[in-house]
Amino acid sequence: WTNRSFRTVAVLVFGAVFVVSLATSVLVTRLDPAPNYFDTRLRLWEFALGALVALVVTRPLPRRLAVVLGWAGLVAVVSTGFVVGPNALFPGWVAIIPTVGAALLLMVKDDGGDHGAHVPLRARWLTWIGDRSYGIYLWHWPMMITYLLRTGAQDVPIHVGLVIFGLSVLLSLGTEQAVAFVTRPRSAKQKASTRRELVRLVAVVGVVALPVTAAPAWTGSRAPAQASYRRTAQ
């Protein structure tokens, strides 16, 4: 196969995956969005979109077009946190907003020159957070779920969200250092302290895992009392 024919076939394949997966995601998410959030088949269109960008956009874009598309992509990504509410059927059609925004940013790269959207994204504090974003994501989830189960709230207030974010950053840093210490090559003398670091890592995970597993039981045990209180109040 030539490179051109291979690329054509790849575009057709990923294009079909994009259409089928996205259409299925939109339809199925309307019925029951919760389990579909973790269904890889319903999220394949997101990966397919990235593949299509890599296959189709192989040359630098004109500077003016890159500026417009780049800033449009950045606005789409940032605005998702404000536009998508707690009752949104995610990851249905709503997921198109941040995914297309990210695809636009990848597509334009730094073709926008000094006025491109990539300029503010190069800020040191943003790249620092970006390097640790996955760890922050993993840590924020159990804390957020614990808060919702503990309080019975439907969403997380801004001030609580900021606290969760701050704790997630700290826990992400701690996990990063612990993993780096355990995996770093060391002498025989240094290996003796590895067990202590593993204990610390397990303890950190337990700090979050314990309330997450205990919260549902605690909430369930309070449900009868809360129902009785409501009946009495009525």
Task: Produce the secondary structure layout.
Layout (H helix, E strand, L loop, with lengths): L2 H29 L1 H4 L7 H13 L6 H21 L12 H13 L9 H4 L2 H8 L1 H19 L6 H26 L4 H4 L2 H40 L1
Helix pairs in contact: 1-3, 3-5, 4-5, 8-9, 8-11, 9-11
GO biological process, one term: lipopolysaccharide biosynthetic process
Protein name: Acyltransferase
Keywords: Acyltransferase, Membrane, Transferase, Transmembrane, Transmembrane helix
Provide a descriptive summary of the structure in words:
This is Acyltransferase. Keywords: Acyltransferase, Membrane, Transferase, Transmembrane, Transmembrane helix. It holds the Pfam family Acyl_transf_3. Residues 4-173 form the Acyltransferase domain. With 234 residues, the protein is mostly helical. The protein has 2 domains: 3-121, no CATH class; 133-233, no CATH class. It is built from 11 helices and no strands. The protein has helices at residues 3-31, 33-36, 44-56, 63-83, 96-108, 118-121, 124-131, 133-151, 158-183, 188-191, 194-233. Helix 3 packs parallel to helix 5 (96-108), helix 8 (133-151) packs parallel to helix 11 (194-233) and helix 9 packs antiparallel against helix 11. The termini are far apart.
Summary, kept brief:
The chain is an all-alpha fold and 234 residues long.
Q: Features of this protein?
A:
2 domains, 234 residues, transmembrane helix, single chain, acyltransferase, mainly alpha, 11 helices, disordered C terminus, transferase
Largest sheet properties: none
Rg, Å, rounded:
23 Å
Give the H and E element order. Answer: HHHHHHHHHHH
State mean pLDDT (0 to 100 scale). Answer: 79
- Oligomeric state: single chain
Q: How many helices does DSSP assign?
A: 11
Question: Uncertain runs with pLDDT below 50, 5 residues or more?
Answer: 214-234
* Content of β-strand: under 5%
Number of strands: 0
Q: What is the domain total for the residues?
A: 2
**Termini distance?**
75 Å
Helix fraction, binned, reads over 70%
| Shape summary | globular
Structural class, by secondary structure, is mainly alpha
